[in-house]
Amino acid sequence: MVFFGLNGWVLAVLLAGVMLGATVAGLLAGRAMSARSEGFREPFGVLQAALIGFMGLVLAFGLSLAVGRYESRRAHVVDEANAIGTTYLRAQTLMEPERTESLRLLRAYTETSIVIGETVPGGPAQDRAVAESERQQRILWSLAGRALDRAPEASAPRLYVETLNETIDAQSTRVYGLTNRVPTAVLVVEIVLAAVALAVLALHVATLGRGVLAVLLAALLVVLLLQVTFDLDRPTRGLIEVPTTPLVDVASSMSAPPAAEAPSGP
Predict the structure, then answer these.
(1) How distant is the alpha carbon of residue 157 from its chain centre?
(2) Which tens digit of pLDDT belongs to each residue from 196-230?
(3) Is pLDDT at 14 greater than 80 in this prediction?
(4) What distance in Å separates the CA atoms of residue 128 and residue 124, rounded to the nearest whole number?
(5) DSSP letter, residue 34
(6) Does residue 242 have a pLDDT over 70?
(7) Does 101 map to a domain?
(8) CA gap 49, 55 in Å, rounded
(9) Is residue 260 part of a domain?
(10) Is residue 184 part of a domain?
(11) Is the residue at 113 inside a domain?
């Protein structure tokens, strides 16, 4: 949660500062020890190799967690868009006046769902959008209940109620998925271990008197990998966002006249 609240550029500068700072500290310490480091070179070589390997495993683990959550969020958007689209089609089979009121409200509900996907999870703007969506859900459910009361034996209201329930559940799943982030403890371990591993690598290279540029490039690559991991876990900010395209497409399809005419009787 601490890292999630930071601006993307601020986070990138912070990560670069930590990794490059650890690398420079290792280089300076290695140069200071180079004159009397004959007995330490082999142990440092073994240690840095072990730390680099362990760092790679931890970074890969954190990246896999972030990628998994990112893919789940994309799937949740598609699921909700499909549920809304089916609900909109089935709403066209309702009797009036519930039909017209439900169709109008479903259009507004879809726009609200798009707003939810474009605001910062847990932020004030998203809280307002979620509250508005819940208000719309209550009205839609009330209209569905009225349609069911008017024609308790008809299949159309029953099918509509079933799909409306799936639509409400789909949005709840998506909202919770937006806040399901990689645990902060995992991210802290990644940063600390990467900094220590780079510092030991730089120290070992400095005692040998070569490879300084390679160490700096390794630090930049670690920063890039960490930034991608953080970016994947920030669904509405950064370079890698969860698109709301499926919901936008559904909203666009709702601008056309209803495909089915209003039923003339129950």
Answers:
(1) 35
(2) 988 888 887 877 776 678 888 888 999 999 999 98
(3) yes
(4) 6
(5) G
(6) yes
(7) yes
(8) 10
(9) no
(10) yes
(11) yes
Q: How many residues comprise the chain? A: 266
Closest CA to 255 of 93, 143, 97, 110: 110
Mean pLDDT of 114-127: 90
Which backbone phi and psi does 141 adopt, to 5 degrees? -65, -35
How many C-beta neighbours within 10 Å does residue 39 have?
Answer: 7
Range of the structural domain that residue 20 is part of? 8-253
- Structural domain count, the chain: 1
Mean pLDDT value of segment 5-10: 75
What pLDDT does 207 receive? 77
pLDDT at 256: 83
pLDDT, mean of residues 79-90: 95
Per DSSP, 262 falls in state P
Number of Cβ within a 10 Å radius of residue 146: 16
Helix runs in the chain, H state only:
8-33, 41-91, 98-118, 124-150, 155-178, 184-208, 212-232, 245-253
Q: Please check the confidence at residue 154 and state whether its pLDDT lies above 90.
A: no
CA 222, 225, 230, 234 torsion: positive or negative? Answer: positive
pLDDT bucket at 39, cuts 50 / 70 / 90: low
Checking 87-90 for CB contacts under 8 A at 24+ apart, the result is 87/160, 87/163, 87/164, 87/166, 87/167, 88/250, 88/254, 89/259, 89/260, 90/156, 90/159, 90/160, 90/163
CA 100 to chain centre: 35
CA distances for 72 relative to 86, 110, 112, 204, angstroms: 21, 20, 21, 42
Distance CA 175, CA 130 (A): 8
